[in-house]
Structures are given as structure tokens and as C-alpha cells.
Amino acid sequence: MIAVGCDHGGFELKTAVLKHLYEKNIAYKDFGAYSSESVDYPVYAKKVADAVVSGECELGLLFCGTGIGISIAANKIKGVRAACCSDNFSVEMTRLHNNANILCLGGRVVSAEKGIELVDLFLSTPFSGDERHQRRIDLITALEENN
Ligand code: RB5
Fold first, then answer.
1. What is the SS3 assignment for 16?
2. Which residue in 5, 12, 82, 143 is deepest, having the highest Cβ count within 10 Å?
């Protein structure tokens, strides 16, 4: 199950991605927002982050105008590794190296076509499992413990 959320700036891109997930038979849970009416992105970041951290959903997708605000908010939740990306290389690397569990995209940054391409890449790329990458992720987790 994929957790999905957005604010008004990401609503259009989220709608295009949801259509694509539906057509590909990929199960998702849409945590809103459900229209392009102005809302506060931290609210939706938290809903998706909680679903991922609790294990209810394996991965998350978040959308706002730039992808930045919603990624900053999601990364405040313990256990979240949210990456804001707009290119294929970064998306692939953030799964392989960072084991990112949420991808954040900007509806005012990438086209629907590009966004769908990035989502497909994110969902199909596994964590490498390499010891050095796991060690660095463990160090990130240790930073959370210090707070
Ligand atoms: C909303 O106008 C916009 O600030 C938001 O979608 C996002 O881009 C924030 O980072």
C-alpha cells in the first residue's frame, strides 16, 4: 500500500499520479487534500508520514508546489526519510543509498509525465542493502534519538 498526500500546490500532480497508480493496479491510500482549495501542507505530510512509519503503508508520495515544504515537514516525523527530487538520478539514488521511504514532488516543478516517471522509478527501485549505506542510515536514526 502506498500512502499519498498533497496540498493545493500538488493537487493536480497527485491526481495525475493517482490515475496512473490505479491503471497500474498499485494499491494506494489517499490522505488528501481532495481539492485545490488552499490548505496547510504540514497536515498532509503528517498523515502520510504516520502511515509509513506505523507500517500501514510501505512507502509514501507527497506533493506540494515545490515538494520542499512538504518534505521538510515529513522529515520531522521520526523514522521518515523523505526526499524531494525532480530528476531520475536523485530518485534512484535516494532509494538505493538512503532507503528513502517518502518521495516528495513539486507540482509547480515537474510535469505530470515527469512526475509519473519519477514515481515509477521510486516505487521500483529497492534499497541496495549495502553495509555502508545501512551504517549511514543508522547514524541518521541515531541523530533522531539525540533530539
Ligand atoms: C503553497 O502555495 C506552497 O507554498 C506549497 O505548496 C509548497 O510549495 C511549499 O513548500
1. helix
2. 5
